[in-house]
Amino acid sequence: MDLSGNSLSGTLPLHIGTPKLQMLMLFKNSFSGTIPCSLFELQNLRFLDLSENKLNGTLANCLRAPKTSNVTMLNLNNNNLSGRIPSFLQRCKELKFLDLASNKFTGSLPTWIWSKIPSLAFLRLRSNMLTGGIPDELTKMKGLQYLDISN
Question: Is 47 a residue whose pLDDT tops 90?
Answer without folding.
Answer: yes
